[in-house]
Amino acid sequence: MKPNWNDSFGLKKKKSLNNKKLFLFENHLNFHKFIFASEKISKDKSIDQKVNRIMSKKQAKCYNLTMAVRKIITTNNKNLKIKSKPVNLKSGIDKKTQNVIKDLLDTVKAASDPEGIGLSAIQINYPVRIFIAKIKDQFEVFINPVIKSFSKKRLSQVLPKKKLFFEGCLSVPKIYGFVDRPYQIVIEWQTPEGKTKKAKFCHREAICLQHEFDHLDGILFVQRVLEQDGKLFQLKKQDDKEEFEEIELY
Ligand SMILES: [Zn+2]
Question: What CA–CA distances, in Å, run from 239 to 11, 12, 24?
Answer without folding.
Answer: 11, 12, 14
